[in-house]
Amino acid sequence: MNTLRVNPLSIITFFFLFSLVFSGYAVAIEESPEATATRLQDRYDTIHSLTFDFVQTTRGQLTGRPKKGRGQAFFVKGGNDLDIPGKMRWNYSDPDKQVLVSDGISFSMYFDSLSQMIITPAKALQHDLTYSFFTGAGNLLQDFNILPPDHQSDKTEQTKVIKIIPKAKHSQVASIHLWVTEESLIRRIEMLDHFDTLTVLNFSDLKVNTLDPNDDALMQKLFNFTPPDGTEIIKQ
């Protein structure tokens, strides 16, 4: 069986972009890419939690046959000017069980098919461009060049497509395309890395601000994971 191994930095990239999903403004017919990015950032600044279902496809010369996965993700933003770290969890249900979770202190990646969990300090990712977005420290317009999409035909009457490129050279991301609906929901993300591997993520059932960061029991349940007995633990 082909196992979909998740690149954590790519996931973090995805997770930040998912958090930019709502805006109170309608999409203008001639809205510029910069205006789209601005309203996404404005709304992102007000979001404290996000959940969604996702379908992920990855293809490229280095990946062999296209790989597909699906699952559900949860995100809670940091607070008190980021003194309280952000939290995230990705539950992959297909093609096999994987759990990527961070409580803001440590970042764990569990792979059921390998009976293995890798644990790294979340602090080690603080200087990563995409992780800073996830924790709420980044700014879309400051850290990315905002451009029109490569192919205008990709746009429909219901969506606005923009292309974003990191201003500073990034080890994982070459460029990203975002599909934004008239209701300012991001329904599709395409991320291209420096090896021409394309990761496409479509998501649904978006729920904004439904998780209470002050619910300690819920936060403990969502953002801590104990692997099954016999799991190999690798600390980095």
Describe what this molecule looks like in 3D.
- This protein has 236 residues and is of the alpha+beta class.
- The chain has a domain at 8-140 and 198-227: Clam (outer membrane lipoprotein receptor (LolB), chain A), CATH 2.50.20.
- Helix content is 17%, strand content 39%.
- It has five helices and twelve strands.
- The chain has helices at 8-18, 33-44, 129-134, 140-143, 216-222, and strands at 49-60, 64-76, 87-94, 98-102, 106-111, 116-121, 144-147, 159-166, 175-181, 186-192, 198-208, 232-235.
- The chain has a twelve-stranded mixed sheet.
- A hairpin with a 3-residue loop joins β4 (98-102) and β5 (106-111).
- The longest helix has 12 residues, at 33-44.
- It is globular.
- It starts with 7 loop residues before the first helix and ends with a strand.
- Mean pLDDT is 81; it is low at 18-28.
What brief labels describe this structure?
single chain; 236 residues; alpha+beta; outer membrane lipoprotein receptor (LolB), chain A; twelve-stranded mixed β-sheet
Q: Trace the largest sheet across and list its strands.
A: 7-8-9-10-11-1-2-3-4-5-6-12
Q: Kindly report the CATH topology of the domain at 8-140 and 198-227.
A: outer membrane lipoprotein receptor (LolB), chain A
Please identify, by name, the CATH architecture of the domain at 8-140 and 198-227.
Answer: Clam
Secondary structure category: alpha+beta
Helix proportion of residues, in percent?
A: 10-25%
- The portion of residues forming beta strands comes to 35-45%
Tell me about the largest β-sheet: 12 strands, mixed
**Rounded Rg:** 17 Å
